[in-house]
Design brief:
The protein has 96 residues and is mostly helical. It has a domain of 57 residues. 77% of the residues lie in helices and 0% in strands. The protein contains four helices and no strands. The protein is rod-shaped. The relative contact order is 0.09. Bound molecules: zinc ion (ZN).
């Protein structure tokens, strides 16, 4: 039996299938149809919905953290430079 009475019919997928697509879904690498199938399952399934939400926030956290790590590199260098200058000043004062 085929359900073709509805335009844009979305195939039902089970939890296992949804979980298998979890990461590709979050990376938005699924095609439109697959995305819709996962989204439809998430609308129906509380368990997968919370799992996907957890993974999504976890991913955001990692991405935020990795971009944070990139930024302070220059800051750390500037601090190290300032520290060197302070030490240099102190040393030259001691020499007098
Ligand atoms: Zn599910």
């Amino acid at each position: 039996m085929t359900l073709n009475w509805e335009e844009g019919y979305v195939k039902q997928i089970d939890c296992q299938e949804a979980e298998r697509r979890l990461h590709t879904f979050l990376d938005r690498e699924l095609d439109k149809e697959e995305m819709a199938e996962v989204q439809a399952h998430l609308d129906d399934c509380r368990e997968c919905h919370s799992k996907f939400r957890f993974e999504a926030s976890f991913k955001r956290l990692i991405m935020a953290r990795s971009s944070e790590q990139r930024a302070p590199t220059g800051l750390r260098e500037r601090l190290a430079e300032r520290l060197r200058q302070q030490r240099g000043e102190r040393r030259s004062r001691d020499d007098k």
